[in-house]
């Protein structure tokens, strides 16, 4: 049993380090580190849908996704804002209602194939939230069409659930290959501008790409409404003038400082004239406009997804830490349990050993002691029968039988499993023992009840009952100086009673309650109650009461 428990414990302790994350599970993910790979979809994913999608990923997949995002962010252009004052795009009339239609329509210079549309928000610095898109619509659609088609085709539609805000990055809208001569941005639900909470449609720039060419550049713009007192500051033409609020800051190429004319003071006047046309600015290479804008949009998407991935990873780590704590407690409980098991097993085995020693001593005393006493009595009778050969022969034969029984008894004492073949006929064995030991006393053994009840007793119980009775007879024969005795055995389905009486001088020398130690020991082994009484007429009566349990019945 102990070995089995130890094997289970070893297996248990082996499994714990193999648990996902093991003992080195990361408790929290850095929110600022670099991340992602694979094709980047420019349309933002609804936040709830993003969380739901990430919820189906495993810890390893989330860690891989986080590493992908960090890796790609290292390659993408950062969002750097221009300084100074310049064109800031255009806006429609302001109002207190959010649910109203406002639009900008760009008339292209003839029909052109369109594959991408970019909306650049007007950026405002909020005192609490920092940089934010100002007046960017919450719900809108993009419609394209040709001359003569005033309805057009809807190529994209966004709602508040798409999670486009907050943002400062451009929104890239991929379009199917379609030929159009006009593009319209229709706002269905407006957002409030930051400084007075009035609702307005406001954009910094709209770019319409056909390949690498911005076909909307410097084209005619029509608006649903305009501000009456703004004059030239937010003219509609600024919506397609090519100016955006970002500074091109590429992640590749060496920086270049433009040529300056002679005579101007500078820290490093040795600037080659080729710096004007080398395709580089102060931050590095000058990228194609479409590639640069796509980098900014991709960065916004990755920076939006990254906190979601981190939050989901932290949930995984939190659950893992909880599981690890639980497993640690289980391991500690298992160790304590195994220690208790070993301790209890030691106590049980110690008690078993003490019980075996006690039974062995009792068996030797009751079985061999009684047999030796009988052999001594038969020896005395044999001496008296020297002149009677026939009687002497019978006595010697009985002595021979008793020695053989003593040998069998020794075998039984050394191996309690051999009790199965002993005392199968308990009542007959008790009768024979009575005749041998009590040959000089007057009396008999009487039985009442069903003899089958005795046969159903387990061999060990039968042997203990027989030896108890035999010890009672030996005590009467040796010590009581009795001339008469009586024995009564009563067997019922659920209990058994044995009473042995004599007319001797009684058990006055026995300690305590008068029960001899040998009888008390045997009664304890059998699990019975034993009492001794002294009748007024003299002598002693030993009474054994045994309740027959199912465990003591032979199956």
Automatic annotation (TrEMBL):
One of its GO terms (molecular function) is ATP binding. InterPro entries: HATPase_C_sf, Sensor_HK_TwoCompSys, Sig_transdc_His_kin_sub3_dim/P. The chain crosses the membrane at residues 327-348. Coiled coil: none annotated. Keywords: ATP-binding, Kinase, Membrane, Nucleotide-binding, Phosphoprotein, Signal, Transferase, Transmembrane, Transmembrane helix, Two-component regulatory system. Residues 1-25 form the signal peptide. It catalyses: ATP + protein L-histidine = ADP + protein N-phospho-L-histidine. Its EC number is 2.7.13.3. Residues 358-406 form the Signal transduction histidine kinase subgroup 3 dimerisation and phosphoacceptor domain. The keyword Nucleotide-binding applies. One of its GO terms (cellular component) is membrane. This is histidine kinase. It comes from Novipirellula artificiosorum. The gene is liaS_1.
């Amino acid at each position: 049993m102990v070995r089995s428990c130890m094997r289970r414990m070893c297996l248990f302790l082996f499994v714990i380090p193999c648990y996902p994350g093991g003992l080195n599970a990361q408790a929290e993910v850095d929110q600022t580190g670099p991340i992602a790979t694979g094709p980047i979809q420019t349309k933002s994913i609804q936040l709830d849908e993003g969380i739901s999608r990430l919820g189906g990923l495993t810890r390893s997949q989330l860690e891989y996704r986080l590493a992908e995002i960090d890796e790609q962010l290292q390659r993408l252009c950062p969002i750097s804002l221009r300084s100074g004052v310049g064109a800031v795009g255009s806006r429609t009339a302001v109002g207190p209602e959010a649910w109203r239609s406002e639009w900008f329509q760009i008339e292209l210079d003839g029909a052109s194939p369109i594959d991408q549309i970019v909306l650049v928000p007007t950026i405002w610095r909020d005192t609490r939230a920092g940089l934010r898109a100002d007046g960017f619509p919450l719900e809108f659609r993009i419609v394209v069409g040709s001359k003569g088609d005033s309805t057009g085709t809807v190529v994209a539609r966004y709602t508040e659930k798409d999670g486009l805000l907050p943002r400062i990055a451009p929104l890239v809208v991929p379009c199917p290959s379609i030929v159009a001569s006009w593009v319209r941005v229709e706002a269905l639900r407006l957002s409030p501008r930051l400084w007075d909470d009035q609702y307005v449609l406001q954009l910094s720039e709209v770019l319409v790409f056909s390949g690498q060419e911005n076909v909307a550049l410097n084209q005619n713009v029509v608006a649903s409404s305009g501000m009456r007192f703004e004059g030239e500051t937010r003219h509609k033409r600024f919506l397609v003038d090519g100016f955006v609020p970002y500074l091109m800051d590429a992640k590749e190429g060496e920086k270049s400082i433009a040529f300056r004319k002679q005579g101007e003071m500078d820290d490093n006047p040795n600037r080659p004239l080729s710096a004007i046309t080398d395709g580089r600015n102060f931050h590095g290479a000058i990228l194609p406009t479409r590639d640069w804008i796509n980098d900014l949009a991709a960065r916004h998407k990755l920076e939006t997804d990254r906190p979601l991935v981190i939050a989901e990873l932290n949930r995984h780590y939190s659950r893992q830490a909880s599981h690890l704590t639980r497993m640690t407690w289980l391991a500690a409980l298992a160790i304590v349990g195994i220690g208790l098991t070993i301790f209890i097993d030691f106590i049980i085995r110690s008690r078993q050993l003490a019980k075996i020693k006690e039974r062995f001593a009792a068996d030797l005393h009751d079985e061999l002691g009684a047999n030796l006493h009988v052999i001594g009595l038969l020896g005395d009778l044999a001496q008296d029968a020297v002149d009677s050969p026939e009687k002497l022969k019978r006595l010697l034969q009985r002595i021979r039988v008793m020695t053989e029984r003593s040998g069998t008894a020794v075998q039984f004492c050394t191996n309690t499993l051999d009790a199965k073949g002993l005392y199968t006929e308990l009542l007959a064995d008790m009768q024979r023992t009575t005749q041998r030991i009590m040959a000089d006393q007057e009396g008999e053994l009487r039985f009442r009840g069903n003899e089958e009840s005795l046969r159903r007793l387990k061999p060990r119980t039968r042997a203990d009952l027989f030896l108890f009775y035999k010890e009672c007879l030996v005590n009467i024969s040796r010590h009581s100086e009795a001339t008469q005795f009586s024995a009564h055995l009563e067997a019922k389905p659920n209990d058994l009673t044995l009473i042995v009486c004599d007319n001797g001088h009684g058990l006055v020398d026995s300690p305590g309650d008068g029960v001899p130690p040998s009888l008390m020991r045997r009664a304890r082994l059998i699990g019975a109650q034993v009492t001794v009484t002294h009748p007024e007429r003299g002598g002693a009566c030993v009474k054994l009461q045994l309740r027959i349990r199912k465990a003591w019945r032979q199956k």
